[in-house]
Amino acid sequence: MKKTILLIDDDINLLNSMASYLISEGFTIHIATNGYNALQNLTIIQPDLIITDIMMPNIDGYELIKRIRSKKNWHQIPVIFLTAKGMTQDRILGYNLGCNAYLAKPFYPEELISIINNIFKQLEFYRPNVNQSTKQLQNKKQNSIFNSLTPKEYKVLLLVAKGYTNKEIANKVNSSIRNIEKYVSRLLNKTKTRNRTELAKLTLLNYLNKLQGE
Question: Residue 163 class from Cβ within 10 Å (0-12 exposed, 13-18 middle, 19+ buried)?
Fold first, then answer.
Protein backbone atom coordinates (compact mmCIF):
# COMPACT_ATOMS: atom_id res chain seq x y z
CA MET A 1 0.00 0.00 0.00
CA LYS A 2 1.37 3.41 -0.98
CA LYS A 3 2.45 5.70 1.81
CA THR A 4 0.99 9.21 1.80
CA ILE A 5 3.33 12.13 2.41
CA LEU A 6 2.35 15.75 3.00
CA LEU A 7 4.91 18.31 1.79
CA ILE A 8 4.78 21.83 3.24
CA ASP A 9 6.99 24.64 1.89
CA ASP A 10 6.42 28.20 0.71
CA ASP A 11 8.98 27.68 -2.08
CA ILE A 12 6.68 26.40 -4.84
CA ASN A 13 9.54 25.37 -7.11
CA LEU A 14 11.16 23.21 -4.43
CA LEU A 15 7.74 21.88 -3.48
CA ASN A 16 6.97 20.75 -7.05
CA SER A 17 10.46 19.31 -7.47
CA MET A 18 10.21 17.24 -4.27
CA ALA A 19 6.68 16.13 -5.15
CA SER A 20 7.73 14.89 -8.59
CA TYR A 21 10.70 12.99 -7.18
CA LEU A 22 8.74 11.35 -4.36
CA ILE A 23 5.91 10.38 -6.73
CA SER A 24 8.51 8.69 -8.95
CA GLU A 25 9.63 6.75 -5.87
CA GLY A 26 6.12 5.37 -5.35
CA PHE A 27 4.64 7.72 -2.73
CA THR A 28 1.29 9.47 -2.80
CA ILE A 29 1.96 13.20 -2.38
CA HIS A 30 -0.09 16.14 -1.14
CA ILE A 31 1.33 19.65 -1.01
CA ALA A 32 0.65 22.81 0.99
CA THR A 33 2.39 26.18 0.73
CA ASN A 34 1.93 27.11 4.39
CA GLY A 35 1.28 25.61 7.80
CA TYR A 36 -2.26 26.98 8.07
CA ASN A 37 -3.49 25.21 4.92
CA ALA A 38 -1.74 22.04 6.02
CA LEU A 39 -3.56 22.00 9.36
CA GLN A 40 -6.89 22.74 7.68
CA ASN A 41 -6.56 19.64 5.48
CA LEU A 42 -4.69 17.28 7.77
CA THR A 43 -7.75 15.27 8.77
CA ILE A 44 -8.78 14.85 5.13
CA ILE A 45 -5.30 13.92 3.86
CA GLN A 46 -4.38 11.66 6.80
CA PRO A 47 -0.69 11.51 5.86
CA ASP A 48 1.66 8.76 6.95
CA LEU A 49 4.47 11.31 7.16
CA ILE A 50 4.93 15.10 6.99
CA ILE A 51 7.91 16.93 5.50
CA THR A 52 7.85 20.61 6.34
CA ASP A 53 9.96 23.73 6.02
CA ILE A 54 10.53 25.75 9.18
CA MET A 55 10.68 29.35 7.96
CA MET A 56 7.14 29.99 6.71
CA PRO A 57 4.72 32.92 7.15
CA ASN A 58 1.92 32.86 9.77
CA ILE A 59 2.51 29.35 11.14
CA ASP A 60 6.15 28.28 10.99
CA GLY A 61 7.41 24.70 11.26
CA TYR A 62 7.95 24.89 15.01
CA GLU A 63 4.40 26.07 15.66
CA LEU A 64 3.08 23.51 13.18
CA ILE A 65 4.67 20.57 14.96
CA LYS A 66 3.48 21.89 18.34
CA ARG A 67 -0.11 21.76 17.09
CA ILE A 68 0.34 18.35 15.47
CA ARG A 69 1.80 16.86 18.63
CA SER A 70 -1.00 18.35 20.75
CA LYS A 71 -3.79 16.56 18.84
CA LYS A 72 -4.74 13.01 19.73
CA ASN A 73 -5.43 11.97 16.13
CA TRP A 74 -2.25 13.54 14.77
CA HIS A 75 0.42 13.31 17.44
CA GLN A 76 2.00 10.10 16.15
CA ILE A 77 2.52 11.31 12.55
CA PRO A 78 6.28 11.36 11.80
CA VAL A 79 7.64 14.81 10.92
CA ILE A 80 10.80 15.66 8.99
CA PHE A 81 12.08 19.22 9.17
CA LEU A 82 13.49 20.29 5.80
CA THR A 83 15.04 23.72 6.16
CA ALA A 84 17.89 26.11 5.51
CA LYS A 85 18.22 26.50 9.29
CA GLY A 86 21.03 24.12 10.18
CA MET A 87 22.40 25.53 13.41
CA THR A 88 22.76 23.13 16.33
CA GLN A 89 20.32 25.02 18.56
CA ASP A 90 17.71 24.97 15.77
CA ARG A 91 18.07 21.20 15.43
CA ILE A 92 17.85 20.73 19.19
CA LEU A 93 14.64 22.77 19.29
CA GLY A 94 13.20 20.70 16.46
CA TYR A 95 13.97 17.41 18.18
CA ASN A 96 12.66 18.70 21.51
CA LEU A 97 9.37 19.54 19.81
CA GLY A 98 9.13 15.99 18.49
CA CYS A 99 10.47 15.98 14.93
CA ASN A 100 11.72 12.59 13.73
CA ALA A 101 14.49 13.85 11.46
CA TYR A 102 16.15 17.08 10.42
CA LEU A 103 17.57 17.67 6.93
CA ALA A 104 19.22 20.96 6.01
CA LYS A 105 18.96 22.48 2.53
CA PRO A 106 20.51 21.90 0.08
CA PHE A 107 20.22 18.13 0.24
CA TYR A 108 20.52 15.07 -1.94
CA PRO A 109 17.12 13.57 -2.83
CA GLU A 110 18.58 10.10 -2.18
CA GLU A 111 19.32 11.13 1.41
CA LEU A 112 15.72 12.26 1.91
CA ILE A 113 14.46 8.93 0.56
CA SER A 114 16.77 7.06 2.94
CA ILE A 115 15.46 9.05 5.90
CA ILE A 116 11.83 8.45 4.86
CA ASN A 117 12.33 4.70 4.40
CA ASN A 118 14.18 4.43 7.71
CA ILE A 119 11.32 6.15 9.57
CA PHE A 120 8.77 3.79 8.02
CA LYS A 121 10.93 0.75 8.88
CA GLN A 122 11.16 1.91 12.50
CA LEU A 123 7.39 2.34 12.66
CA GLU A 124 6.80 -1.16 11.28
CA PHE A 125 9.12 -2.55 13.96
CA TYR A 126 7.52 -0.46 16.71
CA ARG A 127 3.84 -1.18 16.02
CA PRO A 128 3.90 -4.95 16.74
CA ASN A 129 5.70 -4.24 20.02
CA VAL A 130 3.09 -1.65 20.94
CA ASN A 131 0.25 -4.04 20.07
CA GLN A 132 1.86 -6.78 22.17
CA SER A 133 2.36 -4.41 25.11
CA THR A 134 -1.27 -3.25 24.85
CA LYS A 135 -2.47 -6.86 24.83
CA GLN A 136 -0.33 -7.71 27.84
CA LEU A 137 -1.67 -4.67 29.71
CA GLN A 138 -5.26 -5.68 28.92
CA ASN A 139 -4.60 -9.23 30.09
CA LYS A 140 -3.02 -7.95 33.28
CA LYS A 141 -6.06 -5.74 33.90
CA GLN A 142 -8.41 -8.66 33.32
CA ASN A 143 -6.42 -10.87 35.68
CA SER A 144 -6.55 -8.15 38.31
CA ILE A 145 -10.34 -8.01 38.03
CA PHE A 146 -10.76 -11.77 38.31
CA ASN A 147 -8.26 -12.04 41.16
CA SER A 148 -10.29 -9.49 43.13
CA LEU A 149 -13.39 -11.72 43.14
CA THR A 150 -14.39 -13.59 46.28
CA PRO A 151 -14.57 -17.43 46.06
CA LYS A 152 -18.37 -17.25 45.98
CA GLU A 153 -18.37 -14.60 43.24
CA TYR A 154 -15.95 -16.64 41.17
CA LYS A 155 -18.07 -19.77 41.54
CA VAL A 156 -21.17 -17.87 40.42
CA LEU A 157 -19.17 -16.39 37.54
CA LEU A 158 -18.14 -19.81 36.25
CA LEU A 159 -21.74 -21.05 36.40
CA VAL A 160 -22.94 -17.97 34.51
CA ALA A 161 -20.25 -18.60 31.89
CA LYS A 162 -21.52 -22.19 31.50
CA GLY A 163 -24.99 -20.85 30.72
CA TYR A 164 -26.85 -21.72 33.93
CA THR A 165 -29.90 -19.65 34.86
CA ASN A 166 -30.11 -17.78 38.16
CA LYS A 167 -32.49 -20.44 39.50
CA GLU A 168 -30.10 -23.26 38.55
CA ILE A 169 -27.14 -21.39 40.06
CA ALA A 170 -29.11 -20.79 43.26
CA ASN A 171 -29.76 -24.53 43.59
CA LYS A 172 -26.10 -25.41 42.98
CA VAL A 173 -24.65 -22.97 45.53
CA ASN A 174 -27.48 -23.33 48.07
CA SER A 175 -28.58 -19.70 47.85
CA SER A 176 -31.70 -17.73 46.97
CA ILE A 177 -32.44 -16.48 43.46
CA ARG A 178 -32.43 -12.94 44.87
CA ASN A 179 -28.89 -13.37 46.19
CA ILE A 180 -27.74 -14.78 42.85
CA GLU A 181 -29.22 -11.75 41.09
CA LYS A 182 -27.17 -9.54 43.40
CA TYR A 183 -24.02 -11.57 42.66
CA VAL A 184 -24.55 -11.34 38.91
CA SER A 185 -25.20 -7.60 39.14
CA ARG A 186 -22.01 -7.18 41.18
CA LEU A 187 -20.03 -9.22 38.64
CA LEU A 188 -21.32 -7.08 35.78
CA ASN A 189 -20.22 -3.94 37.61
CA LYS A 190 -16.78 -5.29 38.52
CA THR A 191 -16.02 -6.52 35.00
CA LYS A 192 -17.72 -3.54 33.32
CA THR A 193 -19.74 -5.84 31.08
CA ARG A 194 -23.29 -5.08 29.98
CA ASN A 195 -24.96 -8.48 30.08
CA ARG A 196 -24.47 -12.17 30.83
CA THR A 197 -23.25 -12.90 27.29
CA GLU A 198 -20.42 -10.37 27.56
CA LEU A 199 -19.60 -11.65 31.03
CA ALA A 200 -19.36 -15.22 29.73
CA LYS A 201 -17.12 -14.15 26.83
CA LEU A 202 -14.82 -12.26 29.15
CA THR A 203 -14.56 -15.26 31.46
CA LEU A 204 -13.68 -17.55 28.55
CA LEU A 205 -11.10 -15.06 27.25
CA ASN A 206 -9.49 -14.84 30.67
CA TYR A 207 -9.35 -18.64 30.86
CA LEU A 208 -7.71 -18.90 27.40
CA ASN A 209 -5.18 -16.21 28.29
CA LYS A 210 -4.21 -18.16 31.40
CA LEU A 211 -3.73 -21.31 29.33
CA GLN A 212 -1.50 -19.45 26.87
CA GLY A 213 0.54 -18.06 29.74
CA GLU A 214 1.20 -21.47 31.23
Answer: exposed
Q: What is the pTM of this model?
A: 0.59
Distance in angstroms (rounded) separating the CA atoms of residues 143 and 202:
11
Burial of 177 (0-12, 13-18, 19+ CB in 10 A): middle
Domains and CATH numbers, the chain: 4-123 (3.40.50.2300), 135-206 (1.10.10.10)
Identify which of 105, 84, 100, 112 has the alpha carbon closest to the alpha carbon of residue 22: 112
Per-residue pLDDT of the chain (214 residues; tens, 9 = 90+): 789 999 999 999 999 999 999 999 999 999 999 999 999 999 899 999 999 999 888 899 999 999 999 988 888 899 999 887 667 788 888 888 889 888 888 888 899 999 999 988 887 765 554 445 445 545 554 555 667 778 888 888 888 888 888 899 999 889 999 999 998 888 888 878 888 887 777 777 666 555 555 4
Say if residue 106 is preceded by a cis peptide, omega within 30 of 0.
yes
User: Which residue(s) pair with 4 in the sheet?
Assistant: 28
163: left (phi over 0), alpha (psi -120 to 50) or beta: left
* Cα(143)–Cα(111) distance, integer angstroms: 48
